[in-house]
UniProtKB/TrEMBL annotation:
Transmembrane segments: none annotated. This is Cytochrome c. It comes from the Bacteria. GO terms for molecular function: electron transfer activity; heme binding; metal ion binding.
Amino acid sequence: MLASFFIFMTSCQSAQELKSEQYFVEGYQLYTTHCSNCHQADGKGMSNLYPPINGSAALADKAFLACIIQNGMTDKIKVGGRDFNRPMPPNKKLTDIEIAEIVSFVTMKWKKDSTFTDIETVQAALKNCKVY
Ligand code: HEC
Protein backbone atom coordinates (compact mmCIF):
# COMPACT_ATOMS: atom_id res chain seq x y z
CA MET A 1 0.00 0.00 0.00
CA LEU A 2 2.63 2.46 1.10
CA ALA A 3 4.98 1.28 -1.61
CA SER A 4 2.49 1.75 -4.42
CA PHE A 5 1.66 5.21 -3.15
CA PHE A 6 5.34 6.01 -3.32
CA ILE A 7 5.65 4.79 -6.91
CA PHE A 8 2.69 6.94 -7.88
CA MET A 9 4.29 10.01 -6.31
CA THR A 10 7.56 9.38 -8.12
CA SER A 11 6.07 8.91 -11.57
CA CYS A 12 3.87 11.94 -11.04
CA GLN A 13 6.88 14.06 -10.24
CA SER A 14 8.84 12.96 -13.25
CA ALA A 15 5.92 13.82 -15.57
CA GLN A 16 6.05 17.31 -14.07
CA GLU A 17 9.80 17.47 -14.61
CA LEU A 18 9.49 16.29 -18.18
CA LYS A 19 6.92 18.97 -18.94
CA SER A 20 9.13 21.60 -17.32
CA GLU A 21 12.00 20.57 -19.59
CA GLN A 22 9.75 20.66 -22.68
CA TYR A 23 8.42 24.12 -21.84
CA PHE A 24 11.92 25.37 -21.11
CA VAL A 25 13.31 24.14 -24.44
CA GLU A 26 10.34 25.38 -26.50
CA GLY A 27 10.39 28.64 -24.57
CA TYR A 28 14.08 29.10 -25.23
CA GLN A 29 13.50 28.76 -28.98
CA LEU A 30 10.57 31.18 -28.94
CA TYR A 31 12.57 33.64 -26.83
CA THR A 32 15.40 33.47 -29.37
CA THR A 33 12.98 34.22 -32.22
CA HIS A 34 10.73 36.83 -30.59
CA CYS A 35 12.60 38.48 -27.73
CA SER A 36 16.37 38.23 -27.90
CA ASN A 37 16.80 40.85 -30.64
CA CYS A 38 15.98 43.44 -28.04
CA HIS A 39 16.50 41.84 -24.63
CA GLN A 40 19.54 39.83 -25.81
CA ALA A 41 20.31 36.14 -25.34
CA ASP A 42 21.55 36.74 -21.80
CA GLY A 43 18.37 38.69 -20.93
CA LYS A 44 20.37 41.72 -19.90
CA GLY A 45 18.83 44.08 -22.42
CA MET A 46 20.65 46.78 -24.32
CA SER A 47 21.88 50.06 -22.86
CA ASN A 48 19.03 52.51 -22.32
CA LEU A 49 16.97 51.11 -25.19
CA TYR A 50 15.78 47.72 -23.98
CA PRO A 51 15.42 46.84 -20.30
CA PRO A 52 16.94 43.72 -18.74
CA ILE A 53 14.63 40.77 -18.03
CA ASN A 54 17.41 38.94 -16.21
CA GLY A 55 17.24 40.40 -12.71
CA SER A 56 13.97 42.28 -13.26
CA ALA A 57 11.23 42.39 -10.62
CA ALA A 58 8.75 41.73 -13.47
CA LEU A 59 9.68 38.03 -13.30
CA ALA A 60 7.64 37.72 -10.10
CA ASP A 61 4.42 38.68 -11.94
CA LYS A 62 3.44 35.98 -14.42
CA ALA A 63 0.16 37.67 -15.31
CA PHE A 64 2.04 40.83 -16.26
CA LEU A 65 4.54 38.81 -18.31
CA ALA A 66 1.80 36.98 -20.23
CA CYS A 67 -0.04 40.24 -20.96
CA ILE A 68 2.93 42.22 -22.22
CA ILE A 69 4.18 39.30 -24.33
CA GLN A 70 0.80 39.25 -26.08
CA ASN A 71 -0.05 42.98 -26.13
CA GLY A 72 3.27 44.76 -25.84
CA MET A 73 3.67 47.82 -23.64
CA THR A 74 4.13 51.57 -23.98
CA ASP A 75 4.41 52.69 -20.37
CA LYS A 76 7.44 54.39 -18.98
CA ILE A 77 9.18 51.97 -16.65
CA LYS A 78 12.16 51.84 -14.34
CA VAL A 79 14.23 48.65 -14.23
CA GLY A 80 17.35 48.43 -12.11
CA GLY A 81 17.22 52.18 -11.46
CA ARG A 82 17.17 53.05 -15.17
CA ASP A 83 14.31 54.60 -17.15
CA PHE A 84 12.92 53.01 -20.30
CA ASN A 85 10.19 54.46 -22.45
CA ARG A 86 10.33 52.90 -25.89
CA PRO A 87 7.36 50.77 -26.90
CA MET A 88 7.60 46.99 -26.79
CA PRO A 89 5.72 45.51 -29.80
CA PRO A 90 2.79 43.07 -29.34
CA ASN A 91 2.95 39.42 -30.42
CA LYS A 92 -0.62 38.75 -31.45
CA LYS A 93 0.25 35.59 -33.36
CA LEU A 94 1.67 33.67 -30.41
CA THR A 95 -0.69 30.98 -29.08
CA ASP A 96 -1.53 30.71 -25.38
CA ILE A 97 0.73 27.69 -25.05
CA GLU A 98 3.62 29.51 -26.72
CA ILE A 99 3.16 32.39 -24.28
CA ALA A 100 3.20 29.87 -21.39
CA GLU A 101 6.43 28.42 -22.78
CA ILE A 102 8.10 31.84 -22.97
CA VAL A 103 6.93 32.72 -19.43
CA SER A 104 8.27 29.33 -18.29
CA PHE A 105 11.63 29.91 -19.95
CA VAL A 106 12.26 33.40 -18.56
CA THR A 107 11.12 32.56 -15.01
CA MET A 108 13.02 29.25 -14.87
CA LYS A 109 16.13 30.74 -16.42
CA TRP A 110 16.33 34.08 -14.62
CA LYS A 111 14.25 33.67 -11.47
CA LYS A 112 15.25 30.05 -10.88
CA ASP A 113 11.65 28.83 -10.78
CA SER A 114 11.81 25.07 -10.43
CA THR A 115 8.78 24.33 -12.57
CA PHE A 116 6.94 25.47 -15.71
CA THR A 117 4.05 27.93 -15.98
CA ASP A 118 0.92 26.15 -17.18
CA ILE A 119 -1.44 27.26 -19.91
CA GLU A 120 -4.34 27.75 -17.45
CA THR A 121 -2.37 30.39 -15.55
CA VAL A 122 -1.64 32.19 -18.81
CA GLN A 123 -5.22 32.00 -20.10
CA ALA A 124 -6.61 33.38 -16.83
CA ALA A 125 -4.11 36.24 -17.01
CA LEU A 126 -4.87 37.04 -20.65
CA LYS A 127 -8.57 37.48 -19.87
CA ASN A 128 -7.74 40.30 -17.47
CA CYS A 129 -4.97 42.27 -19.13
CA LYS A 130 -4.62 45.95 -18.39
CA VAL A 131 -2.94 48.32 -20.82
CA TYR A 132 0.70 48.72 -19.86
C1 HEC B 1 11.51 45.48 -30.41
C2 HEC B 1 12.16 45.21 -29.15
C3 HEC B 1 11.51 44.27 -28.16
C4 HEC B 1 11.13 42.94 -28.35
C5 HEC B 1 11.23 42.13 -29.62
C6 HEC B 1 10.64 42.49 -27.06
N1 HEC B 1 10.72 43.49 -26.14
FE1 HEC B 1 10.28 43.34 -24.15
N2 HEC B 1 10.55 45.32 -23.96
C7 HEC B 1 11.01 46.19 -24.92
C8 HEC B 1 10.97 47.54 -24.43
C9 HEC B 1 11.40 48.79 -25.18
C10 HEC B 1 10.45 47.48 -23.12
C11 HEC B 1 10.14 48.65 -22.19
C12 HEC B 1 8.73 49.10 -22.54
C13 HEC B 1 8.31 50.36 -21.86
O1 HEC B 1 9.16 51.14 -21.44
O2 HEC B 1 7.09 50.57 -21.79
C14 HEC B 1 10.22 46.06 -22.84
C15 HEC B 1 9.77 45.56 -21.63
C16 HEC B 1 9.75 44.23 -21.30
C17 HEC B 1 9.54 43.70 -19.97
C18 HEC B 1 9.26 44.50 -18.72
C19 HEC B 1 10.45 45.15 -18.18
C20 HEC B 1 11.49 44.26 -17.70
O3 HEC B 1 12.49 44.06 -18.42
O4 HEC B 1 11.33 43.71 -16.64
C21 HEC B 1 9.62 42.34 -20.06
C22 HEC B 1 9.51 41.34 -18.94
C23 HEC B 1 9.81 42.03 -21.46
N3 HEC B 1 9.91 43.19 -22.17
C24 HEC B 1 9.88 40.75 -21.97
C25 HEC B 1 9.87 40.45 -23.34
C26 HEC B 1 9.70 39.14 -23.89
C27 HEC B 1 9.51 37.87 -23.08
C28 HEC B 1 9.74 39.28 -25.25
C29 HEC B 1 9.52 38.22 -26.31
C30 HEC B 1 8.19 37.66 -26.38
C31 HEC B 1 9.99 40.68 -25.54
N4 HEC B 1 10.05 41.36 -24.36
C32 HEC B 1 10.17 41.21 -26.82
C33 HEC B 1 11.45 45.81 -26.18
C34 HEC B 1 11.23 44.59 -26.76
